[in-house]
Write a structure and sequence with these properties.
Length: 404
Protein backbone atom coordinates (compact mmCIF):
# COMPACT_ATOMS: atom_id res chain seq x y z
CA UNK A 1 0.00 0.00 0.00
CA UNK A 2 1.30 3.45 -0.88
CA UNK A 3 -0.02 6.64 0.66
CA UNK A 4 0.59 10.32 1.13
CA UNK A 5 -0.06 10.81 4.83
CA UNK A 6 -0.50 14.39 6.03
CA UNK A 7 -2.18 13.50 9.29
CA UNK A 8 -2.64 9.79 9.86
CA UNK A 9 -3.84 10.24 13.44
CA UNK A 10 -6.80 12.24 12.14
CA UNK A 11 -7.76 10.23 9.07
CA UNK A 12 -6.94 6.64 10.10
CA UNK A 13 -10.25 5.98 11.83
CA UNK A 14 -12.33 7.35 8.98
CA UNK A 15 -10.21 5.56 6.38
CA UNK A 16 -10.61 2.22 8.13
CA UNK A 17 -14.34 2.84 8.55
CA UNK A 18 -14.94 3.54 4.86
CA UNK A 19 -12.95 0.43 3.90
CA UNK A 20 -15.08 -1.67 6.25
CA UNK A 21 -18.32 -0.17 4.94
CA UNK A 22 -17.17 -0.66 1.34
CA UNK A 23 -16.41 -4.33 1.93
CA UNK A 24 -19.77 -4.85 3.60
CA UNK A 25 -21.69 -3.22 0.75
CA UNK A 26 -19.76 -4.51 -2.27
CA UNK A 27 -18.30 -7.73 -0.85
CA UNK A 28 -14.77 -6.85 -1.95
CA UNK A 29 -11.81 -4.76 -0.84
CA UNK A 30 -11.44 -1.29 -2.39
CA UNK A 31 -8.61 -0.73 -4.85
CA UNK A 32 -8.12 2.82 -3.59
CA UNK A 33 -9.31 5.39 -1.07
CA UNK A 34 -9.37 9.14 -1.57
CA UNK A 35 -9.50 11.49 1.43
CA UNK A 36 -10.19 15.24 1.40
CA UNK A 37 -10.58 17.62 4.36
CA UNK A 38 -13.14 20.27 5.10
CA UNK A 39 -12.07 23.86 5.54
CA UNK A 40 -12.81 27.02 7.45
CA UNK A 41 -11.92 30.46 6.18
CA UNK A 42 -10.28 32.48 8.93
CA UNK A 43 -10.76 35.77 7.10
CA UNK A 44 -11.45 36.98 3.58
CA UNK A 45 -15.21 36.43 3.39
CA UNK A 46 -16.87 36.64 -0.03
CA UNK A 47 -13.77 37.98 -1.76
CA UNK A 48 -12.55 34.83 -3.51
CA UNK A 49 -14.90 35.31 -6.47
CA UNK A 50 -13.73 38.93 -6.54
CA UNK A 51 -10.10 37.86 -7.14
CA UNK A 52 -9.29 38.84 -3.57
CA UNK A 53 -7.16 37.56 -0.69
CA UNK A 54 -8.38 34.76 1.57
CA UNK A 55 -6.90 32.88 4.52
CA UNK A 56 -8.45 29.43 4.92
CA UNK A 57 -7.24 26.38 6.81
CA UNK A 58 -8.08 22.77 6.10
CA UNK A 59 -9.64 21.16 9.16
CA UNK A 60 -9.57 17.66 10.55
CA UNK A 61 -12.95 16.43 9.36
CA UNK A 62 -12.97 14.66 6.04
CA UNK A 63 -14.73 13.09 3.08
CA UNK A 64 -13.68 9.48 2.47
CA UNK A 65 -14.28 7.87 -0.92
CA UNK A 66 -13.45 4.21 -1.53
CA UNK A 67 -13.45 2.70 -5.00
CA UNK A 68 -12.84 -0.56 -6.86
CA UNK A 69 -13.02 -1.65 -10.47
CA UNK A 70 -16.54 -2.74 -11.39
CA UNK A 71 -17.27 -5.97 -13.24
CA UNK A 72 -19.76 -3.99 -15.31
CA UNK A 73 -17.66 -1.89 -17.66
CA UNK A 74 -18.76 1.67 -18.31
CA UNK A 75 -20.91 1.99 -15.19
CA UNK A 76 -20.21 3.89 -11.98
CA UNK A 77 -22.24 2.45 -9.10
CA UNK A 78 -22.16 5.01 -6.29
CA UNK A 79 -23.52 4.92 -2.74
CA UNK A 80 -23.43 7.57 -0.01
CA UNK A 81 -23.47 6.49 3.63
CA UNK A 82 -24.62 9.90 4.84
CA UNK A 83 -27.43 10.27 2.34
CA UNK A 84 -28.28 6.56 2.42
CA UNK A 85 -28.83 6.78 -1.31
CA UNK A 86 -27.36 5.13 -4.40
CA UNK A 87 -27.22 6.16 -8.02
CA UNK A 88 -25.61 4.99 -11.25
CA UNK A 89 -23.72 6.91 -13.93
CA UNK A 90 -23.67 5.27 -17.36
CA UNK A 91 -20.44 6.45 -18.96
CA UNK A 92 -21.82 5.67 -22.42
CA UNK A 93 -24.44 8.43 -22.00
CA UNK A 94 -24.00 12.18 -21.55
CA UNK A 95 -23.53 13.07 -17.88
CA UNK A 96 -26.05 15.75 -16.95
CA UNK A 97 -27.42 17.23 -13.70
CA UNK A 98 -30.09 15.16 -11.99
CA UNK A 99 -31.86 14.61 -8.71
CA UNK A 100 -31.16 14.22 -5.86
CA UNK A 101 -29.11 17.41 -5.85
CA UNK A 102 -26.15 16.07 -3.82
CA UNK A 103 -25.31 13.68 -6.66
CA UNK A 104 -24.49 16.62 -8.92
CA UNK A 105 -21.25 17.29 -7.06
CA UNK A 106 -20.18 13.81 -8.17
CA UNK A 107 -21.70 13.97 -11.65
CA UNK A 108 -20.00 17.28 -12.35
CA UNK A 109 -16.56 15.90 -11.52
CA UNK A 110 -17.14 12.81 -13.67
CA UNK A 111 -18.25 15.09 -16.51
CA UNK A 112 -15.05 17.11 -16.12
CA UNK A 113 -12.90 14.02 -16.58
CA UNK A 114 -14.85 12.78 -19.58
CA UNK A 115 -14.73 16.16 -21.35
CA UNK A 116 -10.93 16.02 -21.04
CA UNK A 117 -10.94 12.75 -22.95
CA UNK A 118 -9.98 10.69 -19.89
CA UNK A 119 -11.28 7.14 -20.14
CA UNK A 120 -12.76 5.80 -16.94
CA UNK A 121 -13.38 2.15 -16.12
CA UNK A 122 -16.52 0.88 -14.44
CA UNK A 123 -16.28 1.54 -10.71
CA UNK A 124 -17.95 0.74 -7.42
CA UNK A 125 -17.74 3.85 -5.23
CA UNK A 126 -18.72 4.40 -1.61
CA UNK A 127 -18.77 7.87 0.00
CA UNK A 128 -18.56 8.60 3.72
CA UNK A 129 -17.93 11.86 5.58
CA UNK A 130 -17.25 13.36 8.99
CA UNK A 131 -17.92 16.92 7.76
CA UNK A 132 -21.22 18.34 9.01
CA UNK A 133 -23.23 19.25 5.91
CA UNK A 134 -24.52 22.82 5.70
CA UNK A 135 -22.01 23.91 8.33
CA UNK A 136 -19.92 26.26 6.21
CA UNK A 137 -17.01 23.79 6.28
CA UNK A 138 -17.14 23.16 2.53
CA UNK A 139 -18.40 19.59 2.46
CA UNK A 140 -19.19 20.08 -1.24
CA UNK A 141 -15.64 20.98 -2.31
CA UNK A 142 -14.30 18.18 -0.13
CA UNK A 143 -16.59 15.70 -1.89
CA UNK A 144 -15.59 17.00 -5.32
CA UNK A 145 -11.86 16.79 -4.66
CA UNK A 146 -12.14 13.35 -3.04
CA UNK A 147 -14.08 12.02 -6.03
CA UNK A 148 -11.52 13.57 -8.39
CA UNK A 149 -8.77 11.71 -6.52
CA UNK A 150 -10.54 8.38 -7.07
CA UNK A 151 -11.04 9.11 -10.76
CA UNK A 152 -7.37 10.06 -11.20
CA UNK A 153 -6.28 6.69 -9.83
CA UNK A 154 -8.93 4.76 -11.76
CA UNK A 155 -8.17 6.60 -14.99
CA UNK A 156 -4.40 6.36 -14.57
CA UNK A 157 -3.92 10.12 -14.83
CA UNK A 158 -2.63 12.98 -12.70
CA UNK A 159 -4.25 16.38 -13.05
CA UNK A 160 -1.27 18.69 -12.91
CA UNK A 161 -0.95 22.06 -11.21
CA UNK A 162 -4.24 23.80 -10.52
CA UNK A 163 -6.23 21.66 -12.95
CA UNK A 164 -7.93 19.49 -10.32
CA UNK A 165 -9.36 22.28 -8.14
CA UNK A 166 -10.33 24.19 -11.27
CA UNK A 167 -12.17 21.12 -12.62
CA UNK A 168 -13.99 20.76 -9.29
CA UNK A 169 -14.93 24.43 -9.20
CA UNK A 170 -16.39 24.18 -12.70
CA UNK A 171 -18.35 21.09 -11.64
CA UNK A 172 -19.97 23.12 -8.88
CA UNK A 173 -20.79 25.94 -11.28
CA UNK A 174 -22.26 23.77 -14.03
CA UNK A 175 -23.91 20.94 -12.08
CA UNK A 176 -24.77 22.35 -8.64
CA UNK A 177 -25.48 25.86 -10.00
CA UNK A 178 -23.35 27.45 -7.27
CA UNK A 179 -21.08 30.22 -8.68
CA UNK A 180 -18.35 29.70 -6.07
CA UNK A 181 -14.84 31.12 -6.19
CA UNK A 182 -11.66 29.04 -6.12
CA UNK A 183 -10.94 29.13 -2.39
CA UNK A 184 -12.66 25.96 -1.24
CA UNK A 185 -11.30 23.60 -3.88
CA UNK A 186 -7.80 25.08 -3.66
CA UNK A 187 -7.72 24.76 0.13
CA UNK A 188 -8.98 21.19 0.12
CA UNK A 189 -6.35 20.29 -2.48
CA UNK A 190 -3.26 22.22 -1.38
CA UNK A 191 -3.42 22.93 2.37
CA UNK A 192 -0.44 21.99 4.53
CA UNK A 193 -0.62 20.62 8.08
CA UNK A 194 -0.39 23.23 10.83
CA UNK A 195 -0.66 26.14 8.41
CA UNK A 196 -3.01 28.84 7.28
CA UNK A 197 -3.11 29.22 3.50
CA UNK A 198 -2.92 32.77 2.16
CA UNK A 199 -4.40 32.46 -1.31
CA UNK A 200 -4.35 35.25 -3.86
CA UNK A 201 -7.42 34.44 -5.93
CA UNK A 202 -6.25 36.65 -8.78
CA UNK A 203 -2.94 34.98 -9.61
CA UNK A 204 -3.59 31.75 -7.64
CA UNK A 205 -0.38 32.10 -5.66
CA UNK A 206 -0.22 30.45 -2.23
CA UNK A 207 1.73 31.28 0.92
CA UNK A 208 1.57 28.73 3.72
CA UNK A 209 1.67 30.66 7.00
CA UNK A 210 2.36 28.64 10.18
CA UNK A 211 -0.48 28.69 12.70
CA UNK A 212 0.79 28.94 16.28
CA UNK A 213 -1.09 25.92 17.58
CA UNK A 214 0.89 25.83 20.84
CA UNK A 215 -0.76 29.05 21.97
CA UNK A 216 -3.83 29.40 19.78
CA UNK A 217 -6.77 27.31 18.64
CA UNK A 218 -9.65 27.77 16.21
CA UNK A 219 -13.03 26.78 17.60
CA UNK A 220 -15.89 26.07 15.20
CA UNK A 221 -19.43 26.61 16.51
CA UNK A 222 -22.07 25.13 14.20
CA UNK A 223 -25.58 26.57 14.42
CA UNK A 224 -27.02 23.66 12.40
CA UNK A 225 -29.22 26.36 10.88
CA UNK A 226 -29.54 26.77 7.12
CA UNK A 227 -31.88 29.45 5.82
CA UNK A 228 -33.50 28.64 2.50
CA UNK A 229 -32.53 31.92 0.80
CA UNK A 230 -28.81 31.16 1.07
CA UNK A 231 -28.04 29.94 -2.46
CA UNK A 232 -30.07 32.61 -4.24
CA UNK A 233 -28.66 35.38 -2.07
CA UNK A 234 -25.11 34.10 -2.64
CA UNK A 235 -25.61 34.38 -6.40
CA UNK A 236 -27.18 37.81 -5.92
CA UNK A 237 -24.17 39.13 -4.01
CA UNK A 238 -21.82 37.83 -6.66
CA UNK A 239 -23.90 39.48 -9.37
CA UNK A 240 -23.80 42.80 -7.53
CA UNK A 241 -20.03 42.66 -7.29
CA UNK A 242 -19.78 41.88 -10.99
CA UNK A 243 -22.09 44.81 -11.77
CA UNK A 244 -19.79 47.21 -9.93
CA UNK A 245 -16.79 45.81 -11.82
CA UNK A 246 -18.52 46.14 -15.19
CA UNK A 247 -19.68 49.67 -14.42
CA UNK A 248 -16.03 50.65 -13.91
CA UNK A 249 -14.65 48.50 -16.72
CA UNK A 250 -12.67 46.38 -14.26
CA UNK A 251 -11.86 42.70 -14.56
CA UNK A 252 -12.72 42.23 -10.88
CA UNK A 253 -13.18 44.16 -7.64
CA UNK A 254 -9.57 43.35 -6.79
CA UNK A 255 -8.67 46.36 -8.95
CA UNK A 256 -11.18 48.66 -7.23
CA UNK A 257 -10.03 51.78 -5.37
CA UNK A 258 -11.97 54.09 -3.08
CA UNK A 259 -11.79 56.93 -5.58
CA UNK A 260 -13.23 54.68 -8.30
CA UNK A 261 -16.12 53.65 -6.08
CA UNK A 262 -16.87 57.26 -5.17
CA UNK A 263 -17.03 58.10 -8.86
CA UNK A 264 -19.80 55.59 -9.66
CA UNK A 265 -21.63 55.23 -6.36
CA UNK A 266 -24.55 57.36 -7.57
CA UNK A 267 -25.01 54.94 -10.51
CA UNK A 268 -25.41 51.92 -8.24
CA UNK A 269 -27.94 50.75 -5.69
CA UNK A 270 -27.04 50.97 -2.01
CA UNK A 271 -26.41 47.26 -1.46
CA UNK A 272 -24.06 47.01 -4.45
CA UNK A 273 -22.02 49.92 -3.10
CA UNK A 274 -21.84 48.43 0.40
CA UNK A 275 -20.81 45.03 -1.05
CA UNK A 276 -17.95 46.73 -2.90
CA UNK A 277 -16.94 48.57 0.27
CA UNK A 278 -16.80 45.25 2.11
CA UNK A 279 -14.53 43.70 -0.53
CA UNK A 280 -12.11 46.64 -0.39
CA UNK A 281 -11.82 46.55 3.40
CA UNK A 282 -11.79 42.76 3.63
CA UNK A 283 -8.68 42.47 1.47
CA UNK A 284 -6.98 45.02 3.73
CA UNK A 285 -8.12 43.12 6.85
CA UNK A 286 -6.82 39.82 5.51
CA UNK A 287 -3.31 41.16 4.98
CA UNK A 288 -3.40 42.86 8.39
CA UNK A 289 -4.56 39.65 10.08
CA UNK A 290 -1.68 37.69 8.55
CA UNK A 291 0.86 40.25 9.70
CA UNK A 292 -0.58 40.38 13.22
CA UNK A 293 -0.44 36.58 13.43
CA UNK A 294 3.18 36.58 12.26
CA UNK A 295 4.00 39.23 14.88
CA UNK A 296 2.09 37.33 17.59
CA UNK A 297 -0.19 40.32 18.10
CA UNK A 298 -3.12 38.07 18.90
CA UNK A 299 -5.57 40.71 20.15
CA UNK A 300 -5.12 42.86 17.05
CA UNK A 301 -5.57 39.80 14.85
CA UNK A 302 -8.78 38.99 16.72
CA UNK A 303 -10.10 42.50 16.17
CA UNK A 304 -9.80 41.92 12.42
CA UNK A 305 -12.15 38.95 12.80
CA UNK A 306 -14.73 41.01 14.65
CA UNK A 307 -14.52 43.75 12.02
CA UNK A 308 -14.87 41.17 9.25
CA UNK A 309 -18.03 39.77 10.80
CA UNK A 310 -19.57 43.20 11.28
CA UNK A 311 -18.89 44.00 7.63
CA UNK A 312 -20.33 40.69 6.42
CA UNK A 313 -23.42 41.27 8.55
CA UNK A 314 -24.05 44.96 7.88
CA UNK A 315 -22.47 45.70 4.49
CA UNK A 316 -22.58 42.38 2.63
CA UNK A 317 -25.72 41.31 4.51
CA UNK A 318 -25.03 37.57 4.47
CA UNK A 319 -25.17 36.87 8.19
CA UNK A 320 -28.26 35.95 10.20
CA UNK A 321 -29.53 36.32 13.75
CA UNK A 322 -28.02 33.01 14.86
CA UNK A 323 -24.52 33.81 13.60
CA UNK A 324 -24.63 37.33 15.03
CA UNK A 325 -25.72 35.92 18.38
CA UNK A 326 -22.78 33.51 18.51
CA UNK A 327 -20.25 36.21 17.65
CA UNK A 328 -21.71 38.50 20.30
CA UNK A 329 -21.55 35.67 22.85
CA UNK A 330 -17.86 35.17 22.04
CA UNK A 331 -17.23 38.90 22.35
CA UNK A 332 -18.88 38.99 25.77
CA UNK A 333 -16.60 36.21 27.06
CA UNK A 334 -13.70 38.47 26.08
CA UNK A 335 -9.96 38.31 26.52
CA UNK A 336 -10.15 37.32 30.20
CA UNK A 337 -11.85 34.08 29.12
CA UNK A 338 -9.36 33.56 26.29
CA UNK A 339 -11.43 34.79 23.34
CA UNK A 340 -9.48 36.87 20.82
CA UNK A 341 -11.97 37.27 17.99
CA UNK A 342 -14.84 35.65 16.10
CA UNK A 343 -16.63 35.81 12.77
CA UNK A 344 -18.99 33.84 10.57
CA UNK A 345 -17.34 31.49 8.10
CA UNK A 346 -18.64 30.17 4.81
CA UNK A 347 -21.33 31.62 2.57
CA UNK A 348 -23.55 32.78 5.43
CA UNK A 349 -27.29 32.67 6.25
CA UNK A 350 -26.52 29.91 8.75
CA UNK A 351 -23.68 27.47 9.18
CA UNK A 352 -20.80 28.15 11.51
CA UNK A 353 -18.83 30.76 13.40
CA UNK A 354 -15.10 30.50 14.06
CA UNK A 355 -13.54 31.73 17.29
CA UNK A 356 -9.82 32.49 17.67
CA UNK A 357 -9.03 31.50 21.25
CA UNK A 358 -6.13 30.84 23.58
CA UNK A 359 -5.52 27.11 23.37
CA UNK A 360 -5.53 26.35 27.06
CA UNK A 361 -8.98 27.94 27.40
CA UNK A 362 -10.44 26.64 24.15
CA UNK A 363 -12.57 23.80 25.54
CA UNK A 364 -14.18 26.04 28.14
CA UNK A 365 -14.90 28.68 25.50
CA UNK A 366 -16.63 26.17 23.23
CA UNK A 367 -18.72 24.82 26.11
CA UNK A 368 -19.63 28.30 27.32
CA UNK A 369 -20.73 29.63 23.95
CA UNK A 370 -22.67 26.51 23.00
CA UNK A 371 -24.44 26.24 26.36
CA UNK A 372 -25.47 29.90 26.35
CA UNK A 373 -26.75 29.70 22.78
CA UNK A 374 -28.72 26.52 23.43
CA UNK A 375 -30.26 27.87 26.64
CA UNK A 376 -31.56 30.91 24.76
CA UNK A 377 -32.66 28.77 21.82
CA UNK A 378 -34.63 26.27 23.88
CA UNK A 379 -37.68 28.52 23.76
CA UNK A 380 -37.23 29.30 20.07
CA UNK A 381 -37.48 25.72 18.74
CA UNK A 382 -34.29 26.16 16.76
CA UNK A 383 -31.59 23.50 16.22
CA UNK A 384 -29.06 23.07 19.00
CA UNK A 385 -25.55 24.33 18.30
CA UNK A 386 -22.45 22.19 18.66
CA UNK A 387 -18.76 23.00 18.65
CA UNK A 388 -15.30 21.54 18.27
CA UNK A 389 -11.66 22.58 18.08
CA UNK A 390 -10.46 22.50 14.47
CA UNK A 391 -6.85 21.47 13.99
CA UNK A 392 -5.21 22.79 10.77
CA UNK A 393 -4.53 19.73 8.66
CA UNK A 394 -3.15 18.87 5.24
CA UNK A 395 -4.89 18.71 1.89
CA UNK A 396 -6.28 15.79 -0.07
CA UNK A 397 -4.50 12.47 -0.25
CA UNK A 398 -5.02 9.19 -2.07
CA UNK A 399 -4.22 5.63 -1.12
CA UNK A 400 -3.72 2.86 -3.64
CA UNK A 401 -3.78 -0.71 -2.41
CA UNK A 402 -1.42 -3.26 -3.94
CA UNK A 403 -3.75 -6.22 -4.17
CA UNK A 404 -2.57 -9.46 -5.72
Amino acid sequence: MTADSPDESTVACGRDAVISKFRKRFNCHPDFVSIAPGRVNLIGGHVDYNAGLVLPVAVDCHTFVAGAKNDEAGVLAIHSIRENESFVIDLACPVVPAQPNWTNYVRGVVHGFLTRGIELPGLKILIDSTIPSGSGLSSSASLEVAVAGILELAGGVVLEGNEKPRLCQLAEHQFANVPCGIMDQFTVTFAQPGCMMLLDCRNESIEHVPFNHDQLAVAVINTHVRHELSEGEYASRRQRCETVSKTLGLESLRDLTWSMLDRVSDQLDELSVSCAEHVLRENERTLAFVQYMKNEEWARAGEMLYQSHTSLSEKFQVSCAELDELVESARKLGRERGVLGARMTGAGFGGSVIVLVEREKASDVVSGIVETYNEIGAALSRPRASGFIAEPTGGAQVIKFDID
